[in-house]
User: Fold these one by one.
Assistant:
Number 1:
Amino acid sequence: MRAQLTQRMLLSLVLGLLFLNTAAMGSCSANYQGLLQQLQSQADLLQDTSLLLDPYIRLQGLDTSELRKLCKERPGAFPSQDALWELSRWDLLHTLNATLGQALHRLTALQQDFPKARDWLTVTMNIRGFQNNIHCLSQLLRASSETAKPTQASPGASPPPIPASDAFQHKLEGCQFLSGFHRLMGSAGQVFREWGKTPRRSRRHSPRRLALRKGPRGVQLFRRGRRLVPMGQLPR
Ligand SMILES: *[C@@H]1O[C@H](CO)[C@@H](O)[C@H](O)[C@H]1NC(C)=O
């Protein structure tokens, strides 16, 4: 238990420093794999229900098997795992970014409801870091893509309204939101893990890769330098 806590603190510290480092420099790392790995680590950390959902359930007195059943995320509140897989890389980044921006608002409103301020801080800091990494990854994709276009916020990314009918309803909505949030981060982690295995093979965003694969054998290097985006802008 203690070792686990220490490990998490270290991890959040490292992730926080990575974020601060990037933010302070005001520029983005051009290391595609490095950014993916940071996003993965952050998603892995944020999917952990012991950070927010579990303590929330205990503190709000929802810790019975009956009530826990009601704490499932509401369908449509967050993009489903299947929906995430359907998206192009570009759309996925924007959907996650927009969804997390809204989640951050909601978490700020719920701040008083978490017993451990430190865990709440870890989460919000890593959401910001995650968004920053998304920003950097979008820039890399844009640099290596001729077809990238800005996209509208996708449906399903909007948070459910908070009717606040009564206190109990409010608690339930809080835990449903947290369930969905942790689940979304787990799904996002899986998608990024898959990206890491198949570097830039997406249909829309890898003209370079596509050109290399289709090109006649033996001229890859030449084509790469001559026909495509200048090397400096490409993720390495
Ligand atoms: C991510 O969302 C924030 C608002 O939460 C916005 O300011 C920023 O431009 C978005 N970045 C990208 C890459 O979409």
Note: The first helix runs from residue 2 to 25.
Number 2:
Amino acid sequence: MILQILAVSCLAFFANAQIDVNSCTDYNTTVDKCNTDNTIDGGNPLTWASVGMFYSLPGNVYCSAANKGNFMKATECIQKAYIACGKNDFHKFVSSVDGIKGGVEYYCNNYEDFDMNCISELQMCAKNKAPADQTMPTMDDEFNKNRDYYCGHAEHLGECINSNDKLKNCAKNKTMEIIMKIAEELFPPACDATSFVISSVLLLVSLFITL
Ligand SMILES: *[C@@H]1O[C@H](CO)[C@@H](O)[C@H](O)[C@H]1NC(C)=O
Ligand SMILES: *[C@@H]1O[C@H](CO)[C@@H](O)[C@H](O)[C@H]1NC(C)=O
């Protein structure tokens, strides 16, 4: 399970950007409480890494009738703790608490039609679209530098979702629509979603045409 989480940790799209939880004193205690208050039968306690990629957790376990409510509450609780560790406005570059909540609910209602393997190239695709000399900013960098980095990434990801062949050819053919909806939920509040929403509208139109 730990290996699985490490293997896919590069797939967290927006939720875990630049907030430094290691120097945030109450964070671990709060996360522990989020987990003990909302235990998942047959699942593992959640961390900031697994909340950022909730769509990689097995839906048949985490979204079962018995667990779904706690899964939603635990992810929401951890995202809130994570955001609280951010400085100034920097939480706007990570997914909002409502976004995580909406994303988890959507995933739980659709996981049977979703194949995680089909999105394995997206993060690299988005990375390759970034300027070669771009370095990852920190909370100490100015707002604009972070905005260029994270909002650029978000837009590139939207382009990749629409154009990646592996995803297009996914045998579970609703995977593309599902990851687009999830990415929309997780879209960082600081970024202008216009182009992203336009590309997802185009995607839905093109799905409609192929039906
Ligand atoms: C929080 O937990 C992580 C992982 O268990 C650990 O590496 C880190 O040092 C802890 N941070 C604090 C501030 O206690
Ligand atoms: C999607 O997959 C389902 C089940 O495999 C199939 O019945 C359907 O025709 C496919 N739809 C498209 C648009 O390819």
Note: The chain is about 55% helix and 0% strand.
